[in-house]
Specification:
The chain is α/β, with parallel strands linked by helices. It folds into two domains: 169 residues, Quinone Oxidoreductase, Chain A, domain 1 (Alpha-Beta Complex), CATH 3.90.180; 148 residues, NAD(P)-binding Rossmann-like Domain (Rossmann fold, 3-Layer(aba) Sandwich), CATH 3.40.50.
């Protein structure tokens, strides 16, 4: 996948609907300073999670990972990159890494904490950012495009699912009998429900409720991890006995209000996670609602806590085991996740706008390249 011209996809920080492609230096013209490497961004996934990065760009410093012209931003994505040129011992040209990249054809990094399994980007502008996002894992090409796609599409989302479910279970479900998940058809919502279903098989006494749009009812029921699935306009039909925890992937003001008003003071915890419905900001109504006030969930903070709790290697081992169980469960489930591969600026812009406008479907995974 040779790149002859550099290119960046930029979006206006204060108006995500305004995007443009900007020419960048061709790889052969990029100066690689001592201690730095130039990587080609081979492929990356784009999901609603990436829109969340953009919406929360200022508040959570996501714009700081990859500098852009004043007022513009490069949205972070998860994918694979190959080292084109290296002036850094321990990171050789030709090596392939999985991690956090910009929506660009290539990127310069300054590897630090280099091990046989990868490195951390030690670029000065990333020093204040959470180390979780600065780590790059050495990988070898297997020729299995679907396996690569699952890693790009699901692994970053599933680590969020994993720590959300861990937090809720660790708190004994906040004393609630039900866990209701909005955007239940989403990949992160599915991951939370998948983990909860496993915990139920180990004896947990909790009902897993999926909340979704009418068009996604059949798909969400077919996932096989929810005890009950209802459309947003049927939230009032849910039983309220025993109270509930709300895992809010949608950030839809109307949905949040309906959940809070239905459960009232029986809503014992509200975990605000995603921004699937990013233009219907639920924070506008939360102060007037009964029940628990929403608490914004930040996965890196929970990961950091569990790394301390579980000791050296403990988090990695537990997550790796959970990830493998998910991969095994999805083997042969192309009906659940149909992967498409596209490349070039037109494809990238089309997928970006479709995701921004909510025109994507839950059984689709989009893998892109600007090469």
């Amino acid at each position: 996948m040779a790149t002859t011209n550099g290119i960046d996809f930029l979006v206006k920080r204060d108006n995500l609907r305004e995007g443009r492609f900007a020419p960048a230096s061709a790889p052969d013209d990029v100066r690689v300073e001592p201690g730095s490497v130039l990587l080609r961004v081979d492929r990356f996934a784009f999901t609603a999670n990436n829109v969340t990065y953009a919406v929360m760009g200022e508040r959570m410093s996501y714009w700081d990972f990859f500098p852009a012209p004043e007022g513009w931003g490069r949205i972070p994505v998860w994918g694979f990159g190959t080292v084109l040129r290296s002036a850094c011992d321990g990171v050789e040209a030709g090596r392939r890494y999985y991690g956090y990249f910009p929506m660009s054809s290539h990127v310069v990094m300054a590897p630090d904490r280099i091990t046989p399994g990868g490195f951390s980007d030690g670029s000065a502008h990333r020093a204040h950012l959470h180390p979780l996002y600065n780590q790059y894992t050495l990988t070898r090409a297997t020729g299995d495009d679907r396996a690569d796609a699952l890693q790009m599409l699901l692994r970053p989302l599933f680590i969020t699912s994993f720590v959300i479910e861990d937090m809720i279970a660790d708190a004994d479900f906040y004393g609630a009998r039900s866990v209701a998940i909005s955007s239940a058809s989403s990949k992160t919502g599915y991951g939370v429900a998948f983990q909860l279903a496993e915990r139920k098989r180990d004896g947990a006494n909790v009902e897993i409720v999926g909340l979704t749009s009418p068009r996604n009812l059949d798909f969400t029921r077919g996932l096989g991890v929810y005890d009950r699935v209802v459309a947003y306009d049927a939230i009032g039909s849910l039983p309220t006995e025993g109270g509930a925890v709300f895992v809010d992937m949608a950030n839809d003001a109307a949905v949040r209000a309906a959940v809070h008003r239905h459960y009232g003071e029986g809503l014992l915890y509200d975990c605000a996670v995603g921004l699937t419905h990013w233009e219907r900001d639920a924070s506008r109504v939360e102060s007037a609602l009964p029940g628990a006030r929403p608490e914004v969930f930040f996965a890196p903070a929970r990961i950091k806590q569990r790394v301390r709790d579980w000791g050296p290697g403990g988090f990695e081992q537990r997550f790796a085991a959970a990830w493998q169980r998910l991969v095994d469960a999805l083997r042969g489930r192309e009906d659940w996740l149909h992967v498409t591969f596209d490349e070039g600026p037109k494809a990238v812009e089309r997928v970006y706008r479709d995701t921004l406008d909510g025109r994507t479907v839950p059984d689709e995974g989009r893998i892109l390249s600007l090469g």
